[in-house]
Amino acid sequence: MTATVRRWHDEARTWALLRERGVAEPPSVTLPEGVGWEGAPRESRARTRLWLRRPDRLRWEVEHEVDGVAGGITVGVKAGARYWLRHGFHDWVDTNEDRPGGGWTWTQEELLVEPAPLLGELTLEVGNETVAHGRPAVRARGRPRPLTPRLTDVLGPVADECELLVDPATGLVLYLGVRAGGGTVTALELVELTVGEPLPDELFEPLA
To answer: What confidence category does residue 154 fall into, taking pLDDT thresholds of 50, 70 and 90?
Structure first.
């Protein structure tokens, strides 16, 4: 399976909610040394390409953009419990290859093609049928379960609830909107999808 996902994130609104709620965790974009939060980004966008070969192979490449300025490209590979990750602003690879069972990594876009982590945190309310990018979809709203009062683990530090469009035939999430403080702060949209084409082993080789 290959997929392309567009992501938009309201950095300014997230930071305002963090301050309002007294949460210590900073926004998702790391600021350069010496830059204060008064100069923090307003919004960030990303275009992510995913390659998934079940049961346990995944590769992602993320093109970042902050306030309209293109950033680096993040590349990640997972093979079972092992991972390799290279951020666009680094020339080194983070990996747990030499420490089995030590650490893990993931990308938020992964939730669209492997939504199981959402099911553990959400109580879903199913809505009406619709169409998303030419594919049948079912609307759903997700709220935190009683024992998980915040959705921080998978949806970020300020998430209150989320809106979903789910493909009933495949179980894929075609749209995921994270809401906080009465508005959407993050939106992920699956815009391209190809199923059934063979994927070469080279895609999932460890990063060097």
So the answer is: confident
The model's pLDDT over 60-76, given as tens digits with 9 standing for 90+, comes to 999 999 999 988 899 99
Does residue 156 contact residue 185 with C-beta atoms inside 8 Å? yes
* Contact between 117 and 145 (Cβ < 8 Å): no
Closest by CA to 132, choosing from 6, 2, 44, 1, is 6
Q: Where are the alpha helices (DSSP H) in the chain?
A: 11-21, 110-113, 116-121, 152-155
What pTM did the predictor assign? 0.86
Q: Give the residue from 57, 60, 58 showing the smallest Cα distance to 47.
A: 60
| C-alpha to C-alpha distance for 119 and 159, rounded to whole angstroms | 15
4 has which bridge partners? Answer: 49, 192
